[in-house]
Amino acid sequence: MYDLNDTIAAVSSPSMGARAIIRITGSGTIGVCQRIFNGSLSREKGGVFPGSIAVDESAGGERVDAELYLFRAPYSYTGEDIAEIHICANSAVVEALMGDLLGRGLRMAGPGEFTARAYLNGKIDLSQAEAVNEIVSSSNTFQLAAAEKLLRGRLSESAEEIRSSIMDCLSLIEAGLDFSGEDIEFISGQENSRRLGGIKKQLEDLLAGSIGYEAVIDLPAVGIAGAPNAGKSSLVNILLGSERSIVSHERKTTRDVLTGVLTLAHSRCVLFDCAGLLAEPEGILDELAQEAAIEVLRNSTVVVLCVDISKHDWAKDLAVRKWIDASIVIPVATKSDLLGEEALAERLGELEGLFGVGFMPISVANGSGVELLQEEMDRELAAPIQRRAMPFSEGAASHVALTARHRRAVIEAIDSIDEALDGFDRSAAEVTAMMLRAAYQSLCAIEQAQCVDVDEKILDNIFGRFCIGK
Fold this sequence. Notes:
Radius of gyration: 31 Å
Strand content: 15-25%
Largest sheet: 7 strands, mixed
Distance between the termini: 47 Å
Shape: flat
Number of helices: 16
């Protein structure tokens, strides 16, 4: 378990960045900063302080210019004193500085330990802690927007609102059980059913209006398909900006499925360069390559179908099209630079008539059409995520983001509410109360709220309804 009594340090900036940031937190933060930092430093308040810092001071190292960002407890991310040392230096300088800090008694922070301290010190709840990780690992702008929504605590607010409704209903039922011998009705059967139905609807709305992170965490696949020598590998290389695939005028150059990560304007994807598809494979190697290519295309979110427009016969390309059953296919006419303007327009018309869909002319040689293809790929990849992510716009405050753990907790709560309704219909108030407690506990698990003493919460809720002085 994490030790909150010591002072920890870690590099918190990307390894390839021009500016390095070393973050320190714990009770010894101010003391160590005063020892290593040469500049005016206030013990009473935070701020940004310019100065210099010694690198490997024990070995007589030089000082480098630095800025010290100081965040005082309890108004910091971790709830403790935090310092960030900002320097423009290479990795060797950063490593030497970290070595000096560790030599002064600081401990290297473990993975996620800064956020763990924020959670353990009550600065954020568990769902917000998960959001920090999602922000770091976001692969597109829509996932980032969802993670930021979660970090702002919208899920915790929704869960607390529903828990409050459950507790109100549970308190009335428990009060009725405690005074079962008296002629007092704290809540009628009709009113209870109405309240429980409302709680169930709140939970169902929470599920219906949410996005599952798991739907956007994994990078989508884009397969580049076509007959042999259709220009697939050349297209993959220009899209990735590197010579990822071997390019040759010889047929069947690509045997294996080659991959690369492509970053677009609003999304990222894994690009697959598959072997050329054949209507009739020739030999075992062709069959294996064909099977691998078809399997990749079957699991691709988007397939880019490459057809060599400079050819005169597209019968094999028509056969290839039948192998592709992806819901999103972007047809491109490769090698368009080999035709004049009039011939190109004529061939594009022929392709549209033959395939029943318009083709986008592409030339790897001069780069024409490549940017349009990237925009179309980005649009197709982002569209389903954007449709699901629309609830995360600023104007839709009633929607939240759910991880698999959150979703499971909400579903368990719904199941418990269903059983509570069934228990009340059978006049089994004890069963209803028990299932409401279960629903309450399930929702507590979302942000790891302290709900162990439900009885105390019920009593507070009951007597909190009394007038002052009564």
